[in-house]
Specification:
Length: 399
C-alpha cells in the first residue's frame, strides 16, 4: 500500500506550519481519541421571535433566511429537517405570522441561525429594515410551491433577490421548488426548467445576469429536502475543501467506495468525497443513522437513564444483500462518518479503522484552527468595544 502525505491547508492568517503526516502507515494517533466539539453541546432548538436589536455576530453564525409565499412549506421544511417532525404532522402547523429566529447548533460545523419569514412580508413597508437583515445573511432560501400557480412567487422572488443583492452581493440564492412529491417525473423536470428559465430571464431583463440562482427539487416526504439543505449548508462552511480533501485521502487508502460526514441530528451531510452522490446511497445512510440513534436511545443509556445514546464508542455495521457493507463511526459528539465498502475490502477492517483514527485526528486539527480564529475575532471585538469612548467622552478603562 503506497503512502500518501497529507497536510492540512492553512487558515488565512494562521502562520503556524502543520507537520506532514501520512494517512497510511501514519503513527502517533491513539485509538482512544476523545470526542470533541466546538461550541455549545446543546441542540440549540429554542425558538424565539425576532428582536431586531438582538446582537448577532455574522462572522461566527451565518444566517439562513427562509422566504416564500404563504403556505409554500417553509415552516414544514424547518420542522422536518431540524426537529425530526413527521411530515404528516406538519399538516397541522399554523401559518407563520411573525418573523421567527432559531439557533441551529447541532454540530461544530452546522452552526447557524434560521430566520423563518411570513409570506406576507412587504419590502416597501418603512418599518421593514431589509438592509439590516440581508447584510448579515449567508444564504437566502426561497421556497416555491410547485403544485400552485407560481407566477406570483416568481415576481416575489425577483423582488427579494434584487433587494438582497444590492445590500449583500455575497448572499447564496437557493431556490427550493417544493412539494414535488405530487408531480410525475416528467412534470418535475418541466416545472424546474420553466421556473429556472423565467427567473433568470427576469434577472437578465433587469441587467442582473451575474446573480447566480441554484435550484433544487424538494419534498418533505423523501430525502430530497435533506440533500438540498446539505448543499446549502456546505456553501457556508469555509473548511469544506479541507474536509473533502481529507475524505478523498481516507477512501483512496482504505478501499472505500463512498463516504459522508453527517450531522447525526439533522442528517445533513456537511462533506463528502469527490465521487458523485447517488440519492439511493444517501437515503441508505440516513436510514442507518436513524436506526443507530433509535436503538441507542432504547438500549444505549444506563439503568438510571443517564448517559448519552451517541458517544465516542458508537459504531455500527450493516451488511446489505448486494455484497456492500455500511460502516458508521463516531467522529465528534455530533458528527458521524458513514462509509460504503465492498465486502472484500471490509476484510481489511483493521486498516480502515487505523486510517479512520488518522482522519478523526485531522478533523480535530481543523476544529482547533477554527476555534483559534473564533477566539481571535472575539478578542478583537472585545478590544474594539473597550476602546470606544463612554457617553461623557472619556475613554473606557481596559478590563
Amino acid at each position: 500500500m503506497s503512502q500518501v502525505p497529507r497536510k492540512l491547508p492553512q487558515e488565512e492568517g494562521d502562520e503556524e506550519e502543520e507537520e506532514e503526516e501520512e494517512i497510511v502507515g501514519l503513527a502517533g494517533y491513539a485509538d482512544g481519541a476523545e470526542s470533541f466539539s466546538d461550541g455549545d453541546a446543546e441542540s440549540g432548538g429554542d425558538e424565539a421571535f425576532l428582536d431586531f436589536n438582538d446582537p448577532f455576530s455574522t462572522e461566527v453564525k451565518p444566517r439562513i433566511l427562509l422566504m416564500g409565499l404563504r403556505r409554500s412549506g417553509k415552516s414544514s421544511i424547518q420542522k422536518v429537517v431540524f426537529h425530526k417532525m413527521s411530515p404528516n404532522e406538519t399538516l397541522f402547523l399554523e401559518s407563520t405570522n411573525k418573523i421567527c429566529r432559531e439557533d441551529v447548533s447541532n454540530s461544530s460545523f452546522v452552526n447557524f441561525q434560521i430566520w423563518d419569514f411570513p409570506g406576507q412580508i412587504d419590502f416597501f413597508d418603512p418599518t421593514f429594515d431589509y438592509e439590516m437583515i440581508f447584510r448579515g445573511t449567508g444564504a437566502l432560501i426561497f421556497v416555491i410551491d410547485s403544485q400552485d400557480d407560481y407566477m406570483e412567487a416568481l415576481a416575489r422572488l425577483h423582488l427579494t433577490v434584487t433587494r438582497a443583492y444590492k445590500v449583500n452581493p455575497d448572499i447564496n440564492f437557493e431556490i427550493f421548488i417544493h412539494k414535488v412529491d405530487g408531480l410525475s417525473d416528467d412534470h418535475k423536470i418541466e416545472t424546474q426548467r420553466d421556473i429556472h428559465q423565467r427567473a433568470n430571464d427576469d434577472l437578465a431583463d433587469a441587467g442582473l445576469e451575474k446573480i447566480h440562482l441554484s435550484f433544487y427539487l424538494t419534498s418533505i416526504y423523501d430525502h430530497s429536502i435533506f440533500e438540498a439543505f446539505s448543499k446549502v449548508v456546505q456553501k457556508l462552511i469555509p473548511q469544506l475543501p479541507t474536509l473533502e480533501n481529507l475524505l478523498n485521502i481516507f477512501i483512496s487508502n482504505s478501499g472505500i467506495e463512498k463516504a459522508f460526514l453527517f450531522d447525526v441530528v439533522s442528517k445533513i451531510y456537511i462533506a463528502t468525497d469527490s465521487t458523485p452522490v447517488d440519492m439511493q446511497t444517501y437515503e441508505l445512510c440516513c436510514d442507518m443513522i436513524d436506526v443507530v440513534i433509535d436503538i441507542s436511545c432504547i438500549y444505549g443509556l444506563k439503568d438510571d437513564g443517564t448517559g448519552t445514546p451517541y458517544d465516542k464508542e458508537s459504531m455500527a455495521i450493516i451488511k446489505l444483500n448486494n455484497t456492500t457493507v455500511l460502516y458508521l463511526k463516531e467522529v465528534t459528539k455530533f458528527l458521524a462518518l458513514v462509509c460504503f465498502v465492498r465486502e472484500e475490502s471490509f476484510e481489511r477492517k483493521g486498516l480502515i479503522d487505523y486510517n479512520f483514527h488518522c482522519f478523526r485526528k485531522a478533523i480535530q486539527e481543523v476544529f482547533e484552527v477554527r476555534m483559534k480564529v473564533v477566539r481571535s475575532r472575539k478578542h478583537q471585538s472585545h478590544v474594539q468595544k473597550n476602546k470606544r469612548p463612554t457617553p461623557n467622552g472619556t475613554p473606557r478603562m481596559p478590563l
